[in-house]
Every structure is written in structure tokens, then in C-alpha cells.
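Bug #77: duplicate submission created two jobs. Keeping one. Sequence:
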Amino acid sequence: SHSGRVPLRWILAICFALGLALPVQAQTDPTAPPPGAILFVNQERLLVDSTLGRAILSLESEERAVLTAEGERIAAELSAEESALTELRKTATPEDFRVRAEAFNQRVERVRAEQLDKDRAQTQRNEDRRRAFYATAAQILGDIMVQSRASAIMDRRSVLLYNTSLDITDLAVSRLDAAYAADPALLPTDP
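Kept job's structure:
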């Protein structure tokens, strides 16, 4: 006789029959990561593989090409002006040459400062665009993290080994593409 005790197997069987069994995670998608998983993303791929990222990179490249062409044109003009000044030295008075040489040097310094300012402004625009891009990406990654009930998302490049099924880069790229298609204003042309 069991002295009035109900065997544990009977308690578990009754609980199971009543739906009181230990909670089992029902996953409709067998490929979904388990709740609390750490997910991985390649941030560089978000930029280079997404339509929005490629648009930003293209815009940066176009602006850099314009700035480079302008710099090359100005350099050619200054070189020609320097050659003319060198020729003038042969025939000009020392005072006339000195005045012209100082004016040329001042012009060179002014142009150099202007080009440096343009280069800094270009760099700042690039940084602002990328900051806006990664802010949009962070919202999308946050949504993915909440939807998948993950505990964190890490940059793939900071991990040596990982389960590739936990890499959400492709999913994030497709959602970035969808967000950009829905709102082309996500591309800040002049931040």
C-alpha cells in the first residue's frame, strides 16, 4: 500500500491531460531561432547589399568624383598660372614679380582652404547619411529582435564561430529594401 500517496506519474499524466504540462514553446516556423537566442548580422553587408545602402554609396561616389574633378581642374589652372609666373620672372621687375608671386601664393592658400572645407563637408555628409542609414537599420533590426524574441543581435564580424541559421543579414536587407521602396525619402540627399 502506498499510504495514500498518488504516484508522480499519475500527477504528470493528469496535468498533461488538463493542458497543465510544463510550457512548451510552440514554434510555427521550425527554422525560427529559439526565444532568447543571440542573432547575428553583418552590418557592412546591410550597407553594400541593400538598395538604400547602394544608393548612399553611389551618391557618395558621385559627389566624390565631382569634388575630385574640381580639384584636378583647379590644380591644372594653378599649375598653368605658376608656369606663366615663372616665365614672367624673366622679364618683370623684382618688385612686380614679388607682388604677383605673393598674390599667387595667397590664391593657392585660399583655394586649398576652400577645397579642404569642401572635403570636410563631403565627409560630414557621408557620415550623416550613414548615421541615418544605420538608424533605419537599427529600427528594422529591433523589430526582428522583438518578433523573434531574441535576447541580442551582434555584429557577425565580432564573432569567430556561430550557427549560420542565426544570421539575419538577408532578412534585414530584404526589410531595408522594402522600407526604402515604401519611403524613398529614407535616402538623405543633402543631410
